[in-house]
Amino acid sequence: GPLASDSLEAVLEYDLEPVIFNRETLEGLGRLSKRYRKHILTHLKLETGTHRQGIAEDEVEAFARVYRKFPYLGGPYGASMHFANIEDTTNHEFAQYQLAEYRRLLRRLSRLKVKPKIRHTAASAALILFDETRFELVRPGIAAYGHWPSKETYLTYRLQGGENRIFTPVLT
Fold this sequence. Notes:
By secondary structure, the chain is an alpha/beta fold. It is about 35% helix and about 5% strand. The longest helix has 19 residues, at about 95-110.
């Protein structure tokens, strides 16, 4: 969720790497990094079709300007996105569209000289089903606990030739 403006100093205090989708938050972190002369690693959340908490294409240039204005931010450390409905369907055309949009926005960031060092898109279902979503970092959710994200993810995995028992629940 959003990072509250009165919590920005906690990013410095605990050496956090927040996911940013709000320009005011990024500017606030930029001012803090300048004041304390401390680098802050941030991750941009790009809007690729979910239509919640993401940086839309028409906002990318404004975010790039903020990064150039505050050198201690050093550009985005990472860039992420969220698949709208990858786990509750066996039709992944929209997920493929979103992945293409993500790559397109990354190219735009690169042209603006704010290329992220790491890319991450894969939550549990994407991690299981699509190797091309893994990039440099993955974000396993329920799969880390030994559970399938959904029946549809399990079915798709099996139809792709996957083994039956790749998970063991860590809790009962």
